[in-house]
Write a structure and sequence with these properties.
The structure is a homodimer.
Chain A lengths: L4 E6 L6 H11 L5 E7 L3 E4 L6 E4 L1 E2 L8 E4 L12 H13 L2 E5 L2 H7 L7 E2 L15 E2 L4 E4 L2 E4 L4 H14 L1 H10 L18 H14 L4
Parallel strand pairs in A: 1-2, 1-6, 2-5, 6-7, 7-11, 8-9
Antiparallel strand pairs in A: 3-4, 10-11
Chain lengths: 217, 217
Protein backbone atom coordinates (compact mmCIF):
# COMPACT_ATOMS: atom_id res chain seq x y z
CA UNK A 1 0.00 0.00 0.00
CA UNK A 2 3.00 2.28 0.48
CA UNK A 3 4.43 4.10 -2.47
CA UNK A 4 7.92 2.85 -3.19
CA UNK A 5 10.74 5.22 -2.25
CA UNK A 6 13.98 4.34 -3.94
CA UNK A 7 16.95 5.32 -1.79
CA UNK A 8 20.38 5.01 -3.33
CA UNK A 9 23.63 5.15 -1.38
CA UNK A 10 26.93 5.70 -3.15
CA UNK A 11 29.61 3.53 -1.59
CA UNK A 12 33.29 3.99 -2.44
CA UNK A 13 36.62 2.88 -1.07
CA UNK A 14 37.84 4.91 1.93
CA UNK A 15 34.40 6.36 2.68
CA UNK A 16 33.62 6.93 6.35
CA UNK A 17 31.27 4.14 7.41
CA UNK A 18 29.09 6.15 9.82
CA UNK A 19 28.48 8.85 7.18
CA UNK A 20 26.53 6.23 5.27
CA UNK A 21 25.20 4.00 8.03
CA UNK A 22 23.69 6.81 10.14
CA UNK A 23 21.21 7.91 7.47
CA UNK A 24 20.93 4.34 6.18
CA UNK A 25 19.58 3.12 9.51
CA UNK A 26 16.83 5.76 9.40
CA UNK A 27 15.96 5.81 5.72
CA UNK A 28 15.90 2.03 5.23
CA UNK A 29 12.99 1.88 7.68
CA UNK A 30 10.77 4.33 5.79
CA UNK A 31 7.52 2.81 4.60
CA UNK A 32 8.04 1.66 1.02
CA UNK A 33 11.82 2.09 1.14
CA UNK A 34 13.81 0.22 -1.47
CA UNK A 35 17.47 0.70 -0.63
CA UNK A 36 20.21 0.23 -3.19
CA UNK A 37 23.89 0.39 -2.33
CA UNK A 38 25.96 1.25 -5.35
CA UNK A 39 29.69 1.41 -6.06
CA UNK A 40 31.91 1.62 -9.13
CA UNK A 41 31.64 -2.14 -9.31
CA UNK A 42 29.61 -4.59 -7.24
CA UNK A 43 31.22 -6.14 -4.21
CA UNK A 44 33.23 -5.19 -1.16
CA UNK A 45 33.98 -1.56 -0.37
CA UNK A 46 36.61 -0.87 2.26
CA UNK A 47 35.78 2.10 4.47
CA UNK A 48 38.32 4.34 6.17
CA UNK A 49 36.95 3.10 9.52
CA UNK A 50 39.71 0.59 10.33
CA UNK A 51 39.01 -1.09 7.01
CA UNK A 52 35.46 -2.08 7.91
CA UNK A 53 34.15 -3.56 4.68
CA UNK A 54 30.61 -3.20 3.36
CA UNK A 55 29.04 -4.73 0.30
CA UNK A 56 27.64 -2.75 -2.62
CA UNK A 57 25.07 -4.88 -4.41
CA UNK A 58 25.01 -2.75 -7.54
CA UNK A 59 27.45 -1.18 -9.95
CA UNK A 60 27.01 2.43 -11.06
CA UNK A 61 26.02 1.22 -14.52
CA UNK A 62 23.08 -0.75 -13.10
CA UNK A 63 21.35 2.13 -11.33
CA UNK A 64 20.12 5.20 -13.15
CA UNK A 65 17.31 6.47 -10.91
CA UNK A 66 16.87 7.42 -7.27
CA UNK A 67 14.22 9.23 -5.31
CA UNK A 68 16.83 9.95 -2.65
CA UNK A 69 20.55 9.93 -3.40
CA UNK A 70 22.95 9.88 -0.44
CA UNK A 71 26.65 10.64 -0.88
CA UNK A 72 28.77 9.89 2.21
CA UNK A 73 32.08 11.56 2.88
CA UNK A 74 35.64 10.44 3.46
CA UNK A 75 38.96 11.87 4.48
CA UNK A 76 39.85 11.44 0.83
CA UNK A 77 36.47 12.37 -0.64
CA UNK A 78 37.88 14.70 -3.21
CA UNK A 79 39.74 11.79 -4.82
CA UNK A 80 36.41 11.08 -6.50
CA UNK A 81 36.91 14.19 -8.61
CA UNK A 82 39.33 11.98 -10.52
CA UNK A 83 36.51 9.54 -11.25
CA UNK A 84 34.55 11.23 -14.03
CA UNK A 85 32.20 8.27 -14.36
CA UNK A 86 31.15 8.61 -10.71
CA UNK A 87 30.57 12.35 -11.06
CA UNK A 88 28.60 11.83 -14.26
CA UNK A 89 26.48 9.14 -12.51
CA UNK A 90 25.75 11.60 -9.68
CA UNK A 91 24.71 14.27 -12.20
CA UNK A 92 22.40 11.84 -14.00
CA UNK A 93 20.69 10.66 -10.80
CA UNK A 94 20.35 14.23 -9.63
CA UNK A 95 18.35 15.23 -12.70
CA UNK A 96 15.52 12.93 -11.59
CA UNK A 97 15.93 12.76 -7.82
CA UNK A 98 13.46 14.14 -5.33
CA UNK A 99 16.33 14.80 -2.95
CA UNK A 100 20.07 14.78 -3.52
CA UNK A 101 21.94 14.62 -0.23
CA UNK A 102 25.39 14.39 1.26
CA UNK A 103 26.98 13.79 4.63
CA UNK A 104 30.28 15.32 5.76
CA UNK A 105 32.75 15.76 2.90
CA UNK A 106 30.24 14.15 0.57
CA UNK A 107 29.27 17.73 -0.23
CA UNK A 108 32.69 18.22 -1.83
CA UNK A 109 31.78 15.36 -4.16
CA UNK A 110 28.49 17.04 -5.03
CA UNK A 111 30.54 20.18 -5.62
CA UNK A 112 33.00 18.34 -7.87
CA UNK A 113 30.01 17.02 -9.81
CA UNK A 114 29.05 20.63 -10.45
CA UNK A 115 25.82 20.56 -8.47
CA UNK A 116 26.59 23.23 -5.88
CA UNK A 117 27.21 26.33 -7.94
CA UNK A 118 25.48 29.16 -6.07
CA UNK A 119 24.03 26.66 -3.60
CA UNK A 120 24.19 27.08 0.20
CA UNK A 121 25.76 23.91 1.62
CA UNK A 122 27.59 22.50 4.62
CA UNK A 123 30.36 19.95 5.10
CA UNK A 124 32.69 18.69 7.80
CA UNK A 125 33.75 21.79 9.76
CA UNK A 126 37.43 21.27 8.92
CA UNK A 127 36.83 21.65 5.17
CA UNK A 128 33.74 23.84 5.10
CA UNK A 129 35.59 26.69 3.38
CA UNK A 130 36.57 24.39 0.53
CA UNK A 131 33.01 24.38 -0.70
CA UNK A 132 33.76 27.77 -2.23
CA UNK A 133 36.10 25.99 -4.70
CA UNK A 134 32.91 24.71 -6.24
CA UNK A 135 31.10 28.06 -6.15
CA UNK A 136 28.97 26.78 -3.27
CA UNK A 137 28.06 29.06 -0.37
CA UNK A 138 29.68 27.55 2.76
CA UNK A 139 27.03 27.54 5.47
CA UNK A 140 27.93 26.54 9.03
CA UNK A 141 24.78 24.68 9.99
CA UNK A 142 24.25 21.06 10.91
CA UNK A 143 21.88 20.50 8.00
CA UNK A 144 21.41 22.84 5.04
CA UNK A 145 18.48 22.56 2.64
CA UNK A 146 18.77 24.37 -0.69
CA UNK A 147 16.07 23.43 -3.14
CA UNK A 148 16.26 19.65 -3.45
CA UNK A 149 19.85 19.47 -2.23
CA UNK A 150 20.37 18.73 1.45
CA UNK A 151 23.86 18.64 2.90
CA UNK A 152 24.78 17.55 6.43
CA UNK A 153 27.81 18.51 8.49
CA UNK A 154 30.42 15.99 9.71
CA UNK A 155 29.78 12.24 10.08
CA UNK A 156 27.10 12.04 12.79
CA UNK A 157 25.04 14.87 11.26
CA UNK A 158 23.70 12.41 8.72
CA UNK A 159 21.34 11.05 11.38
CA UNK A 160 19.74 14.45 11.94
CA UNK A 161 19.49 14.97 8.18
CA UNK A 162 17.85 11.60 7.65
CA UNK A 163 15.17 12.27 10.26
CA UNK A 164 14.35 15.59 8.60
CA UNK A 165 14.18 13.83 5.25
CA UNK A 166 11.97 11.11 6.74
CA UNK A 167 9.45 13.77 7.74
CA UNK A 168 9.50 15.28 4.25
CA UNK A 169 9.01 11.93 2.58
CA UNK A 170 6.65 10.15 4.96
CA UNK A 171 5.34 12.71 7.42
CA UNK A 172 6.27 13.74 10.93
CA UNK A 173 4.61 10.80 12.68
CA UNK A 174 6.78 8.36 10.75
CA UNK A 175 9.88 10.45 11.43
CA UNK A 176 9.16 10.65 15.15
CA UNK A 177 8.56 6.90 15.21
CA UNK A 178 11.89 6.28 13.52
CA UNK A 179 13.62 8.58 16.00
CA UNK A 180 12.11 6.63 18.88
CA UNK A 181 12.96 3.35 17.16
CA UNK A 182 16.66 4.23 17.11
CA UNK A 183 16.26 5.83 20.56
CA UNK A 184 17.87 9.01 19.31
CA UNK A 185 17.86 11.12 22.44
CA UNK A 186 21.56 11.95 22.44
CA UNK A 187 23.59 12.57 25.57
CA UNK A 188 27.02 13.51 24.29
CA UNK A 189 29.36 13.06 27.24
CA UNK A 190 31.40 16.14 26.41
CA UNK A 191 30.63 19.57 25.02
CA UNK A 192 33.07 19.14 22.19
CA UNK A 193 31.00 18.23 19.15
CA UNK A 194 31.34 21.35 17.05
CA UNK A 195 33.85 24.00 16.10
CA UNK A 196 31.93 26.55 18.17
CA UNK A 197 31.91 24.44 21.33
CA UNK A 198 35.18 22.52 21.35
CA UNK A 199 38.22 23.75 23.19
CA UNK A 200 40.57 25.56 20.76
CA UNK A 201 43.42 23.39 22.04
CA UNK A 202 41.56 20.41 20.58
CA UNK A 203 40.47 22.09 17.37
CA UNK A 204 43.88 23.17 16.10
CA UNK A 205 45.70 19.80 16.03
CA UNK A 206 42.63 17.97 14.72
CA UNK A 207 42.16 20.50 11.94
CA UNK A 208 45.80 20.15 10.94
CA UNK A 209 45.54 16.34 10.94
CA UNK A 210 42.34 16.29 8.91
CA UNK A 211 43.56 18.80 6.38
CA UNK A 212 46.71 16.77 5.83
CA UNK A 213 44.41 14.09 4.32
CA UNK A 214 43.33 16.52 1.64
CA UNK A 215 45.23 17.80 -1.35
CA UNK A 216 46.71 21.27 -0.90
CA UNK A 217 44.33 24.12 -1.61
CA UNK B 1 54.30 4.44 20.88
CA UNK B 2 50.69 3.87 21.78
CA UNK B 3 49.73 0.81 23.73
CA UNK B 4 47.64 -1.49 21.57
CA UNK B 5 43.96 -1.62 22.44
CA UNK B 6 42.25 -4.65 20.97
CA UNK B 7 38.62 -3.90 20.21
CA UNK B 8 36.45 -6.82 19.15
CA UNK B 9 33.00 -6.47 17.59
CA UNK B 10 30.65 -9.45 17.40
CA UNK B 11 28.83 -9.44 14.07
CA UNK B 12 25.89 -11.77 13.43
CA UNK B 13 23.11 -12.11 10.89
CA UNK B 14 20.18 -9.74 11.44
CA UNK B 15 22.11 -7.43 13.72
CA UNK B 16 21.24 -3.74 13.50
CA UNK B 17 24.01 -2.05 11.55
CA UNK B 18 24.11 1.25 13.43
CA UNK B 19 24.35 -0.55 16.79
CA UNK B 20 27.79 -1.68 15.67
CA UNK B 21 28.90 1.13 13.37
CA UNK B 22 28.16 3.96 15.83
CA UNK B 23 30.69 2.78 18.44
CA UNK B 24 32.93 1.37 15.70
CA UNK B 25 33.39 4.82 14.16
CA UNK B 26 34.56 6.20 17.51
CA UNK B 27 36.58 3.30 18.90
CA UNK B 28 38.43 2.47 15.67
CA UNK B 29 40.05 5.91 15.89
CA UNK B 30 41.48 5.46 19.39
CA UNK B 31 45.26 5.66 19.51
CA UNK B 32 46.58 2.10 19.30
CA UNK B 33 43.23 0.61 18.30
CA UNK B 34 43.31 -2.79 16.66
CA UNK B 35 39.78 -3.59 15.57
CA UNK B 36 38.62 -7.12 14.89
CA UNK B 37 35.18 -7.95 13.49
CA UNK B 38 34.18 -11.46 14.37
CA UNK B 39 31.27 -13.71 13.41
CA UNK B 40 30.42 -17.40 13.65
CA UNK B 41 32.36 -17.83 10.46
CA UNK B 42 34.38 -15.36 8.40
CA UNK B 43 32.64 -13.53 5.62
CA UNK B 44 29.48 -11.58 4.90
CA UNK B 45 27.01 -10.80 7.67
CA UNK B 46 23.60 -9.52 6.63
CA UNK B 47 22.19 -6.87 8.95
CA UNK B 48 18.51 -6.22 9.57
CA UNK B 49 19.02 -2.76 8.03
CA UNK B 50 17.55 -3.52 4.59
CA UNK B 51 20.03 -6.35 4.25
CA UNK B 52 23.08 -4.11 4.38
CA UNK B 53 25.95 -6.57 4.42
CA UNK B 54 29.19 -6.17 6.35
CA UNK B 55 32.24 -8.37 6.39
CA UNK B 56 33.57 -10.18 9.46
CA UNK B 57 37.25 -10.87 8.96
CA UNK B 58 37.47 -13.42 11.75
CA UNK B 59 35.60 -16.48 12.96
CA UNK B 60 34.79 -16.88 16.65
CA UNK B 61 37.35 -19.68 16.88
CA UNK B 62 40.14 -17.35 15.77
CA UNK B 63 39.71 -14.70 18.45
CA UNK B 64 40.02 -15.45 22.12
CA UNK B 65 41.00 -12.10 23.64
CA UNK B 66 39.68 -8.56 23.64
CA UNK B 67 40.38 -5.46 25.64
CA UNK B 68 36.98 -4.13 24.62
CA UNK B 69 34.18 -6.43 23.51
CA UNK B 70 31.18 -4.83 21.78
CA UNK B 71 27.92 -6.76 21.28
CA UNK B 72 25.40 -5.01 19.01
CA UNK B 73 21.69 -5.69 19.17
CA UNK B 74 19.04 -6.84 16.73
CA UNK B 75 15.30 -7.21 16.59
CA UNK B 76 16.03 -10.91 16.88
CA UNK B 77 18.94 -10.64 19.31
CA UNK B 78 17.64 -13.31 21.63
CA UNK B 79 17.95 -15.87 18.80
CA UNK B 80 21.60 -15.99 19.82
CA UNK B 81 20.59 -17.79 23.01
CA UNK B 82 20.25 -20.77 20.68
CA UNK B 83 23.89 -20.43 19.71
CA UNK B 84 25.76 -21.89 22.69
CA UNK B 85 29.11 -21.49 20.96
CA UNK B 86 28.55 -17.72 20.62
CA UNK B 87 27.52 -17.39 24.26
CA UNK B 88 30.51 -19.44 25.38
CA UNK B 89 32.80 -17.25 23.24
CA UNK B 90 31.35 -14.14 24.90
CA UNK B 91 31.94 -15.65 28.36
CA UNK B 92 35.54 -16.51 27.50
CA UNK B 93 36.34 -13.05 26.15
CA UNK B 94 34.64 -11.46 29.15
CA UNK B 95 36.94 -13.22 31.59
CA UNK B 96 39.91 -11.25 30.22
CA UNK B 97 38.33 -8.07 28.87
CA UNK B 98 38.89 -4.62 30.31
CA UNK B 99 35.37 -3.65 29.20
CA UNK B 100 32.50 -5.81 28.04
CA UNK B 101 29.86 -3.71 26.32
CA UNK B 102 26.58 -3.90 24.48
CA UNK B 103 24.33 -1.64 22.45
CA UNK B 104 20.54 -1.91 22.33
CA UNK B 105 19.30 -5.50 22.66
CA UNK B 106 22.89 -6.68 22.75
CA UNK B 107 22.42 -6.57 26.52
CA UNK B 108 19.95 -9.45 26.20
CA UNK B 109 22.76 -11.43 24.61
CA UNK B 110 25.07 -10.59 27.52
CA UNK B 111 22.20 -11.69 29.74
CA UNK B 112 21.75 -14.96 27.87
CA UNK B 113 25.49 -15.53 28.28
CA UNK B 114 24.95 -15.30 32.03
CA UNK B 115 26.95 -12.12 32.54
CA UNK B 116 24.24 -9.86 33.94
CA UNK B 117 23.08 -11.64 37.07
CA UNK B 118 22.64 -8.93 39.69
CA UNK B 119 24.05 -6.35 37.29
CA UNK B 120 22.40 -2.98 36.54
CA UNK B 121 21.97 -2.73 32.77
CA UNK B 122 20.03 -1.01 30.02
CA UNK B 123 18.67 -2.05 26.63
CA UNK B 124 16.34 -0.77 23.93
CA UNK B 125 13.41 0.83 25.78
CA UNK B 126 10.90 -1.58 24.26
CA UNK B 127 12.54 -4.64 25.84
CA UNK B 128 14.18 -3.12 28.91
CA UNK B 129 12.00 -5.14 31.30
CA UNK B 130 13.19 -8.39 29.69
CA UNK B 131 16.59 -7.91 31.27
CA UNK B 132 15.02 -9.24 34.45
CA UNK B 133 14.72 -12.66 32.73
CA UNK B 134 18.47 -12.79 33.14
CA UNK B 135 18.49 -11.54 36.74
CA UNK B 136 19.79 -8.19 35.55
CA UNK B 137 18.53 -4.95 37.09
CA UNK B 138 16.75 -3.03 34.30
CA UNK B 139 18.00 0.55 34.46
CA UNK B 140 16.43 3.21 32.27
CA UNK B 141 19.51 5.25 31.45
CA UNK B 142 21.20 5.93 28.15
CA UNK B 143 24.45 4.31 29.30
CA UNK B 144 24.85 2.11 32.38
CA UNK B 145 28.25 1.23 33.82
CA UNK B 146 28.40 -1.70 36.27
CA UNK B 147 31.91 -2.82 37.06
CA UNK B 148 33.49 -3.57 33.71
CA UNK B 149 30.18 -4.07 31.94
CA UNK B 150 28.78 -1.08 30.07
CA UNK B 151 25.42 -1.31 28.36
CA UNK B 152 23.88 1.32 26.09
CA UNK B 153 20.21 1.95 25.29
CA UNK B 154 18.74 1.62 21.79
CA UNK B 155 20.76 1.84 18.55
CA UNK B 156 22.12 5.42 18.56
CA UNK B 157 23.13 5.25 22.24
CA UNK B 158 26.22 3.29 21.23
CA UNK B 159 27.82 6.56 20.10
CA UNK B 160 27.47 8.11 23.56
CA UNK B 161 28.78 4.93 25.14
CA UNK B 162 31.79 4.80 22.85
CA UNK B 163 32.79 8.37 23.67
CA UNK B 164 32.62 7.60 27.40
CA UNK B 165 34.69 4.51 26.81
CA UNK B 166 37.19 6.50 24.74
CA UNK B 167 37.75 8.78 27.74
CA UNK B 168 38.30 5.80 30.04
CA UNK B 169 40.74 4.15 27.66
CA UNK B 170 42.64 7.13 26.26
CA UNK B 171 41.73 10.17 28.34
CA UNK B 172 39.29 13.02 27.95
CA UNK B 173 41.32 14.99 25.42
CA UNK B 174 41.27 12.06 23.01
CA UNK B 175 37.55 11.53 23.60
CA UNK B 176 36.76 15.19 23.00
CA UNK B 177 38.86 15.12 19.84
CA UNK B 178 36.97 12.09 18.58
CA UNK B 179 33.67 13.80 19.34
CA UNK B 180 34.75 16.81 17.33
CA UNK B 181 36.08 14.56 14.58
CA UNK B 182 32.65 13.00 14.06
CA UNK B 183 31.06 16.44 14.68
CA UNK B 184 28.78 14.93 17.31
CA UNK B 185 26.77 17.96 18.33
CA UNK B 186 23.35 16.44 17.75
CA UNK B 187 20.30 18.44 16.74
CA UNK B 188 17.49 15.87 16.71
CA UNK B 189 14.72 17.45 14.66
CA UNK B 190 11.95 16.15 16.92
CA UNK B 191 11.61 15.59 20.64
CA UNK B 192 10.78 11.96 20.20
CA UNK B 193 13.94 10.04 20.98
CA UNK B 194 13.03 8.34 24.23
CA UNK B 195 10.13 6.69 25.97
CA UNK B 196 9.88 9.64 28.34
CA UNK B 197 9.72 12.23 25.58
CA UNK B 198 7.83 10.64 22.70
CA UNK B 199 4.12 11.10 22.22
CA UNK B 200 2.26 8.09 23.69
CA UNK B 201 0.39 7.75 20.39
CA UNK B 202 3.74 6.96 18.79
CA UNK B 203 5.06 4.74 21.57
CA UNK B 204 2.21 2.23 21.69
CA UNK B 205 2.21 1.01 18.06
CA UNK B 206 6.00 0.98 17.86
CA UNK B 207 6.26 -1.03 21.08
CA UNK B 208 3.76 -3.56 19.74
CA UNK B 209 5.62 -3.86 16.46
CA UNK B 210 9.02 -4.25 18.10
CA UNK B 211 7.79 -6.79 20.63
CA UNK B 212 6.28 -8.88 17.86
CA UNK B 213 9.86 -9.52 16.67
CA UNK B 214 10.63 -11.18 19.97
CA UNK B 215 9.56 -14.53 21.26
CA UNK B 216 6.64 -14.42 23.73
CA UNK B 217 7.68 -13.71 27.30
Amino acid sequence: MNTEIRIVFLFYDHMTALDAIGPHEVLCRLPGAVVQRVAKSRGPVKSDSSGLTLIAEYALSEISKADVLVIPGAGTATDLKDSPETLEWIRILHTQSLWTTSVCTGSLILGAAGLLSGVAATSHWAVLARLSHYQAIPTAQRVVESGKIITAAGVSAGIDMALLLAAKLSGQTVAETLQLGIEYDPEPPFNSGSLAKANPSIVAPLRARLLSCFEPE
